[in-house]
Write the structure tokens for this entry.
Amino acid sequence: MAQRALERRRSSWRSLASHVDVVLVASTVVVAGLGVLMVYSATQAKLASSGVDPLFYLKRQATYAAIGVVAMVAVTLVDYHRFEELGAVAYGGMVLALLAVLSPIGSSARGSQRWFQLGSFQLQPSSFASLVLIVAVAAYAHRHQGAQDLRRLGVLLAMGCLLILLVYGQPDLGTAIIMSVVLLAMLVAAGARGRHLAILGAVAVVGIIAIVNLGVLHKYQTDRLTCFVNPVGQSQGACYNLGQSQIAIGSGGVSGKGLFHGSVTNAAIVPEQQTDFIFTAVGEQLGFFGSASVLALFSLIVWRILRNAQLARDRLGRLLCMGVLGLIAFSVFQNAGMTMGIMPITGIPLPFMSYGGSAIIAFFMAVGIVLNVGLRRYR
């Protein structure tokens, strides 16, 4: 009897495995692999000239990516309907984590307090806050049949705004913006009425104008916005970053200068090139064709996520996929856009490519959620 039950379980897992979205998995892994290569390319010259192991960032990013793949598989294996039960617990835990990181046990750097120092690894809770928001909003909207009436919409907004405000308080404006976009995407997917969304949009516009004019933003955040609106004649801070980023991408031309041969990249002229500005290394070394190929891979990932959302067996699965769609699509658009000057600089990482353990693990987990939804439509 036990042997028969074991065989049935194995057969069930084999059946699930045969329905894995191979295209989504492959494109994600390829982008992450390219990210490891570009992080190495963007850092090896500076590390070598400083007498540091030129493989330092490559080793760490490869390790983070491997952990991310394991996390993606783990998330895929847990039936996503369990997320509905865990949504409230995950939300409460994230609120506590975001409060704790602002306390003395949190670690700070460059004016921000966003991390827990765990040995040589810095854990950034805000990187996972978007995932918790996705799960919590999807669970509530599924349990209460959407967000059509004002009461349910108000609860969802309150859930989202609490996390967003805690993240912004670190301060982490970029992640707060991403979470706002994710929340909006999920409200639309949950069936929020058009007039409610219009009112919400009007309030948001008024709020943004007030925030900018009342001095709520930190100076460097205001400088980034000012630089985006009027970069001419400004050569310091964010405008310097933007100018050097555009020079690097433009100098790559059609086919690029070749891996490890970017003069701007090797000279480390663009600040944070291995993190927020990794796309500049792609543009300079791989050129227009390489940059377009990377964006095409991201488009493929976004399309597969959308496809899984369309084929989801229930509202919960659809909402989860739409949240991940908003997270990844906007992150790519914002990050690539800011390096070219078509979006303001916000410090949002390029999914799977920017250096950083918490971010890449969180993005892999997000893909795991989508794979999970895709698999369960066959059960």
